[in-house]
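Hi all, long-time lurker, first post. I run a small reading group and we've been trying to get comfortable going from sequence to structure in the token notation. Rather than ask abstract questions, I figured I'd post a concrete chain and ask someone more experienced to write out its structure so we can walk through it together at our next meeting. Sequence below, copied exactly:
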Amino acid sequence: MITLEDWALIRRLAGEGVPNAHIAERLGISRTTVIKAVNSESPPHYERTAAPTSFTPFESRVRALLLETPTMPATVLAERVGWTGSIRWFRDNVKRLRPEQQRLDPADRITWAAGDAAQCDLWFPPKKIPLEDGTAKLLPVLVITPAHCRFTTGVMIPTRKTEDLLLGTWQLIEQLGRVPRRLIWDNEPGIGRGRRHADGVDAFMGTLAAKL
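-- Answer (accepted) --
Happy to help. Here is the structure in token form:
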């Protein structure tokens, strides 16, 4: 079973139009798992098989009431379902069920502190760039965007090779005047995938004293 964090990330990426196959490759999971997460309206949760208790006959009704009114007090719930046992035992069970019945907040409220992170990416112009030798080539533009302010700085680089990516990164950080604590890349081959970094990348990040 996937984690709650992976479930949320899968649904966010799918909402942005990222294909299921790309999401599966990025997270190292199967496409079937991705499809199930996209179609699921509730986050994954682990259920442990338990022996029936005095609360078991009332559980389905309590769940239904909590789904309608997640903040309904336990004492009111007990009255609604006709509970006559220990109110403390009833409260403990309601406390267990209440988080499962709360509605999901669809808003993503990620906030960033200044200097915490910067997104690195490549942008490609819509047309080829004329070169001095008379040819034209589609050259990438390395872009770095500090997450807290969305200010964007960019530089055109000759290739997507590691050396050009690192040199371009150095130039853009000089323009920013500060080194972000983290540089975020989305599996760019010249940088690396996951924790498998391209040659020279770890040494570069060590020089910056930043995290990839």
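A couple of things your group might point at:
The first strand starts at residue 117 and ends at 123.
The chain is about 40% helix and 15% strand.
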